[in-house]
Amino acid sequence: MSSAPNWSQNYTNNLNSGHVSTEMLAPFQSTDGMSGGGGNAVMPTTQIEMTISCRNLLNKDILSKSDPYCSVQMKDSWSEKFVEIGRTETVLDNLNPEWVKKFVISYNFETVQKLRFEVWDVDPDGREFLGHFETTLAEIVAFSGRQFVGKLSGIPNQDCGEIIIVTEELSACKQIVQMQFKAKSLTKISWFWRNDPFLVFSRSNEDSTFSVVLKSEPVSSTQNPVWLPINMRVRTLCNGDYDRTIKIDCYDHRSSGDHRLIGSCHTSLRDLVKGPNENSYSLMHSKKQKNKNYTNSGLLELVTIAVTEEITFLDYIRSGTQMHFAVAIDFTASNGPPRDPQSLHFLDIYGGRLNPYEIALRSVGEIIQHYDSAGMFPAFGFGAKLPPTGEVSHQFPLNGNSSHPYCSGIPEILNHYRNRLASVTLYGPTNFSNVINNTASIARQFQDGKHYFILLIITDGIISDMHQTKNAIVNASKLPISIIIVGVGNADFAAMDELDSDDVRLQVDGKYAERDIVQFVPLNRYLSKNGPFVRSQADLAKEVLAEIPDQMTGYMKSRGFKPIKIVPTDPSSQTTTTQPNAPTFSMS
Fold it and tell me: Nearest 5°: phi and psi at 430?
């Protein structure tokens, strides 16, 4: 049984020593579903996986071909502008790119989901526009064929080429396939040097076309390569269909991007799982097959294969892993004087209109409280001068009680937040590193795989200690912790996007984050135009918690922690199997 985190004692000790810690409270217990009363409307949705490729793109480079990537953007019917939901990898020197990266989108049958695809050429000194295409997700999904083809436009008097979009409803398959291949006697493509072979895996579509799902790394200078092991979801490889055709192409890698096909073969996961002895394939080149003396371009052989069940976020939660939340609120002067109606902290006593911080606390709090069985949150402010000394604090309890910094639910956090606004002076600077380091100091004590910690920071985004914050995040990335930053107001949040390192791993002073632990959410994206409330609570909930499951499971797997299997027992049996007790939290 794990020991109980004594959050209050940790907080008091650090306060007395001049270091205020962010204590966590309340086990995060996931339920199988959120309860609701009769008559609730549920939006019918399904998960769609989208694959993108292009044909005949414009060539913007002089000495080589364009290096394209595609930005995928979406907006709902009530939105003013498109918001990027992701972008593909960049394919070098290719006017007909087939991007590997897939996009998983919730398809809502009863709403208009507009999509915009922008294709860009990456250059050393920036990027160049290659064209765009706009449509709706419904139009793509409803297309009778599997390959939806659209004309790229946006450059006057230029044929920008075509974009090909393939969508498929996502399988619920939770299996992972691990396999390794080798080849022997590959046909030599060049007279002067050996091949640098790599493999491209594609799965078949309903119209007999193929969509790329994986590209291996090339093996240098060999006709007998052994590729690194492949680890991927069965859902990605064949959407859970063991009988779906899988095409494997073997190419000779060229730095120009003009890779040369060595040969191809076809298989299925059903055949592959039979093992190495049953999986040796002749690599065939269609153009060479016309030669009666041609046999093959080499042999592709399966070395090893294993299919295992994917361990998910819910597997950990249901086995007793507990999650702990703390809240930190920005009380710096950059938010504006609380008495000013334009201030982000303005309290509309008479009109009852919520300010952005109140909206964020209420909206995000209503999301996370469903995962907190005790309904208790340690809640803090930072960046204000505190009475009676006027000393600036970078972390202080909202309820004023250093030994018991907890609030019983979101309404109590809101009450203490409003009271604190009346008693402190907004000041600065906006330092994140203190609250992050102190949360990490708690998480560091509980690295047993039974606890995970989440720090929610609500801020106007004008950060002062970026270098220290980066260091704090890089150091915390080794610990069981995630950070959700909710940005309020209209500030430039570019710095927050840098901290939310989805595409480029965060680094500082030559040190890299072990994993991405930050999720940044701009609240304005979800606010209604006509009132002080969130337009789409479901969309906000999705983005706030979007990366937490993968961040938690990624940490657990990296440390070798597996969910504890709970074995059902017969009530009449004298012996029983129980889960480890949840930590008890000292309030003294």
Answer: -90, 95
Q: Which amino acid is residue 174, in one-letter code?
A: K
- What is the structure's pLDDT at 481? 95
- 261 forms bridges with which residues in the sheet? 251
CA-CA distances (angstroms) from residue 572 to 565, 566, 567, 580?
21, 17, 15, 21
User: Tokens for 241?
Assistant: 């269909």
pLDDT in tens, 346-367: 998 877 888 889 988 888 877 7
Q: CA–CA distance from 7 to each of 45, 239, 281, 378, 447 (Å)?
A: 41, 45, 60, 9, 15
Question: Is 90 exceeded by the pLDDT of residue 517?
Answer: yes
CB burial readout 249-270, b (16+ within 10 A) else e: bbbbbeeebebebbbbbebbbe
The DSSP line for 422-491 is HHSEEB-----HHHHHHHHHHHTT--SSSEEEEEEEEE-S--S-HHHHHHHHHHHTTSSEEEEEEE-SS-
Q: Residue 77 — very low, low, confident or very high, per pLDDT cuts 50/70/90?
A: low
Residue 42 above 50 pLDDT?
A: no
Query: Which residue in 323, 307, 231 sits closest to 555, CA to CA?
Result: 323
Query: At 187, is the pLDDT very low, low, confident or very high (cuts 50, 70, 90)?
Result: very high
Low-confidence winner among 29-33, 103-107, 406-410 (lowest mean pLDDT) = 29-33
Q: Phi/psi at 32 (nearest 5 deg)?
A: -65, -20
Q: What is the signed CA dihedral for 42, 43, 46, 52, rounded to 10 degrees?
A: -160
Contacts of 209 (CB under 8 A, 6+ apart): 146, 147, 166
On the CB side of 74, how many CA atoms lie within 13 Å of its CA? Answer: 17
What domains appear along the chain, each with residue ranges and CATH number? 7-29+322-558 (3.40.50.410), 45-169 (2.60.40.150), 175-309 (2.60.40.150)
- How far is CA 281 from its chain centroid? 37
> What is the C-alpha radius of gyration for the chain, rounded to an integer number of angstroms?
27
CA distance 70 to 73: 10
DSSP code of 282? E
